[in-house]
Design a protein that fits this description.
Layout (H helix, E strand, L loop, with lengths): L2 H9 L3 H20 L3 H4 L1 E7 L4 H17 L4 E6 L10 H7 L4 E4 L24 H10 L2 H12 L3 E9 L5 E3 L13 E3 L3 H8 L3 E3 L6 H7 L4 E2 L4 H7 L7 E4 L7 E8 H5 L3 H35 L4 E4 L2 H21 L1 H24 L3 H9 L2 H4 L1
Parallel strand pairs: 1-2, 1-3, 6-7, 6-8, 9-11
Antiparallel strand pairs: 3-10, 4-10, 5-9
Length: 380
Amino acid sequence: MSKKEKMLRGKTPSRRKFFKTVAVTGAATVATLAMPNIASAATTLKVQAAWGGGIFLENAQAYVKRVNEMSGGALKLDLLPVNSVVKTSQMQDAVHRGVLDGCHYVPAYWYSKAVSASLFGTGPCWGWSAQELLGWIHYGGGKELYTELMGNLGLNLVGFFNSPMPAQPMGWFKEQIKDASQLKGLKYRTVGLAADVLGEMGLSVVQLPGGEIQPAMKSGLIDAAEFNNPTSDSDFGMQDVSKHYHLASFHQSQEAFEIAFNKKTFNGLAPELQKILEYASEAENSNFYWHNTLRYADDLVKLKNKLGVNIYRTPDSIMAAQLKAWDVIVDKFNKADPFFKKVVISQKAYAKKVMAYLILNSPDYGMAYKHYFGEPAKAI
C-alpha cells in the first residue's frame, strides 16, 4: 500500500462507523422533524361553560385538563365560567359566529332552536340509559344525524358528547307525591322536551336556568322543581326550600354533555389536535361516571341524615303516566317534523336490539343489593 493510500484510508471512516454515524444523525433529524415547536405552534381556544361552579364545572375542568395534558402544550383550552362572554342561551350562536371557540353545555339548552335537539340529550326513554344513548351516538348513527341537524340549521359547529348522566330525580316538592293527581296545576321547573311531557300531565311548566330555581321556589314563583342530581341540587340549596325529594323519573331519564366547537376553527387545527379534542371527550365518559356517581351517593346520604330531607322513590304509577305522556309528545312531533321522526326511528331501532340483550342478560342487581343491605331507602 502506497503512502497516499494509507493517508486516504486514515481519513475514510470504516463501513461500520459510517453507518453508525448515519443512523445517529438520521434519528436526530427525524426526531427534530417529529417534535413540534411547542412555543410557536401553541393554540389557545376560549371555551365557555354553562356552569358557574359545582360538580358540572368540575366535569368541564376535567375535560379541559385532559386536553391540555394530552396535547403537550400544542393546544390549550381556556375554560370560562357561565356568562363570562355571553349568556348560556347565547353560547351556541357565539360559537357559531366565532365569538367563542367552544362551549360546554347540554343539548336541552338549545331546544328552542330545534325540538330534535333534546333527542340528543333528554329524549324519551326507550328502555335505555345514558350509556346506551352515547352508544347510539357513537355507533348507532347518532353522530351522523347530529351532523345533519347542524347542516339543516346552518350552524358552523362540530360537537362531541360525553358523560352518561344517571336518571334525573323527579325533584323537590312541598309534600310527598304519591299519585299523579297531586301534580295537576303545580308550577314546576324543567327544560327541554320534559317541559312538553310534564305539561301533557297537567303541570304548569316554567323553564328557568339552574341558578334561578331555588330563589323561584323560595318566593313561590314555582311550587316544585328538578335540576339534575343530589350534589348539584344541594349546592343550589334546594334542601332549604323543600324537605321532600323524589328520586327516579322518566321525564329526563338519560342525558349527556355536549361540547361544541366552531367548525372553521376546529378544521384549522392539526389532525392530531382534532383527535385529542375528540378522544378526550370519550375518555370523560368513564371519568364522569366514576367521579360523579360516588359524589351523588355521598350527598344523598348527607341530604337525608344531616339536612333532614325525606327521600322517596317516585311511584311506578307516576312513571307509567310519564311514559304515556311521552307517547303523546313523540307522536305530535313525529307528525310535525320529519327530521325528529327520523331520529326517533334510528334511536328505537338501536334501543330495541341493544336493550333486549342487556335486559335479558342483566341479573336483578336490586335483588343482590337487598340480599346484603336491605331496602335502599333504609340503607342510606
